[in-house]
Amino acid sequence: MExxxxxxxxxxxxxxxxxxxxxxxxxxxxxxxRQLEMSNPTKDDHDHTVFRCIKxxxxxxxxEDAKRCFLNCCLFPEDTNINIEDLVKYGIGQGLFQNANTVxxxxxxxxxxxxxxxxxxxxxxxxxxxxVKMHDVVRDTAIxxxxxGDELAFLVHSGAALKKWPRRDSYEAYTAISLMSxxxxxxxxxxxxxxxxxxxxxxxxxxxxxxxxxxxxxxxxRVLDVNGADISSxxxxxxxxxxxxxxxxxxxxxxxxxILGELRxxxxxxxxxxxIEELPEEIGKLVSxxxxxxxxxxxxxxxxxxxxxxxxxxxxxxxxxxxxxWGKPIEGKDQETNAGFDELTRLPCLNTxxxxxxxxxxxxxxxVSNPNWVKFNICMSEDLFVRLMDxxxxxxxxxxxxxxxxxxxxxxxxxxxxxxxxxxxxxLFYMIDSDLHDIISEYDQGRLNGLKSLLVESCYGIVxxxxxxxxxxxxxxxxNLEELxxxxxxxxxxxxxxxxxxxxxxxxKFFQVExxxxxxxxxxxxxxxxxxxxxxxxxxxxxxxxxxxxxEGLGKEQILLRKLKEMKLDKLPHLKNIWNGPxxxxxxxxxxxxxxxxCKKLRNLFVITVSRCLLxxxxxxxxxxxxxxxxxxxxxxxxxxxxxxxxxxxxxxVEKQKEEAMEKNILPQLKxxxxxxxxxxxxxxxxxxxxxxxxxxQLHVQDCPLFRASTAEFHSRKQVQVNNEQHFLLxxxxxxxxxxxx
Length: 742
Description:
Elements: H1 2-7, H2 11-20, H3 26-39, H4 46-59, H5 64-73, E1 82-83, H6 84-94, H7 103-119, E2 124-125, E3 131-133, H8 136-147, E4 154-156, E5 176-178, E6 198-200, E7 223-225, E8 246-248, E9 268-270, E10 291-293, E11 316-318, H9 342-345, E12 352-357, E13 375-380, H10 384-396, E14 402-406, H11 415-420, E15 427-430, H12 439-446, E16 453-457, E17 464-467, E18 483-487, E19 494-497, E20 510-516, E21 522-524, H13 526-529, E22 537-543, E23 547-550, E24 566-570, E25 577-580, E26 593-597, E27 606-607, H14 608-611, E28 619-623, E29 632-633, H15 636-639, H16 646-663, E30 672-676, E31 698-702, E32 721-722, H17 725-735
Parallel strand pairs: 4-5, 5-6, 6-7, 7-8, 8-9, 9-10, 10-11, 11-12, 12-13, 13-14, 14-15, 15-16, 16-18, 17-19, 18-20, 20-22, 21-23, 22-24, 23-25, 24-26, 26-28, 27-29, 28-30, 30-31, 31-32
Antiparallel strand pairs: 1-3, 2-3
Helix pairs in contact: 2-4, 4-8, 5-7, 6-7
């Protein structure tokens, strides 16, 4: 083994080969080391050594599917994010994942293989969710392996800025050709490619036409991707691809897709953002079709009755931002109607669907048998904006496997639908004008025990978000909810009325309240505050609250907000107190980030008693708070004493606070402090600005004319940078990340 390490000149090489063979027994490992040592590379041929290392890792991969997935990654441009879903589609088309019975099982198999390839250092994590990357050196090696194999021969010029098709004496040996992400304008009239199985031409936006005979001699083709090409019509030779399994025509401008009916072995058909107005009846001939994707095909208005139900092998259908006229008459066709929503319930293999429906009237009251929909995203809305928003959210919420958007209440939905969909929903969005009055009654009606994320938006009938006074059951509510968002609720006045049963909201981590103008008083009163034991992020903006937390009535032995890490308060013009009431033991002791913007009536953020708990605070951003005089104010008892003159009392408070400040680091972890447009701010404490922040690194002060503290007065052990613009912009960018859906 030591000899093997001597041969590997590169740490990456060593890591790659060692990890790759790590799941072999010792004898196989010794054989791998022996083979590498036999090559006896020197420093002069380091590149060859690297190649040998990567090649050895490749050779010792257990599964052929892992090798094919690895080689498929080299078909993509250098240093690009490789979409895992593309690898799944290509793999299915190439006949990989034979032990997977469904497309979803194929995804799981691909995920496992890719995880192993990353563990072997043959692949890297992508910069985006759902992606992987391949190091340039590894990619070059993979191309070399794939170009010299007996069974495989790749032609790869992806992302090479090609304007013309690459000329070769012969294309007969190639099994895969990738010319994706180039500037090719014309395709050859015809190619003799009897062994070609994979052809990737996507992202050549200048391709306007495919010659009619282009596919005539590609009889073995199994995977074809021409996404992004503005093709106005499909060539007749496409119908000759009788072995084609995966076809990607995203963005296709052709309105006549009838020729696709010839592709009887097709399993994956992607027509995202296509221009078709009607799904051709010939699609019904695709008896092997397992996935149909028509996302964002906004012109699609017609799917004839019984077309979808003829796709007996269909496992996944995607129609978001696309067809939604279920069961409606076809325009210009007497006595003909579109496919009804009930056709989806009759597809025996369907397990995944993402669809739009205008209202509950499209859903049949009864079904022959309950469908087994494992993953779903159903948007019930007539509003095109809501439907398009749903498509966007689907892209950024990878884990959103069971989502439902409703423009009605649960009691209007058929029982079978509530059993199959509502009760299994993990993410529920309400967008109802007036019919919804209380979300607790919805919880009980829909048996939403598995709900993890809830958005309530523009529900103008809600005055009280939760009301337990009218509830009979004393069982916990929303006990698995992790995320609660309340947006644009013009009638909402209070979050919770009555006592929530113990265990309610026990898993809530994220709470956001936006643009609820009539929401007054405290946001979190004791009846709600004591249930939020796992709250980590609080984001409040655009309402009329006077207090964020009110703790009166709670016992001093109760420990609240023990996990709160981040709090953002924005555009709260009537806010007077963040915390109102006796300070609880260890309150805010995990808070790391605090942002306060446009809270013009705040005179201070916390009193001294509360501020002593801010031991983990790392980032403090205060902006446009015109009434803020100090960051940490006096405790009420100290401020209201009537037994001594004002001047002597102030002097005593100042001396006492100075003494306390010297005894203890008030904000020991504070790294970033930003103060902007605070015209009345004089310092941290009344009468003096000094505070101990031994970890302070960045100080931003702008338009704070009365704030005179120097960096030395913060007593930092580090070199404090003042008004670093680059760092300020980074903080500003991070400031708005909390707004995004998780």
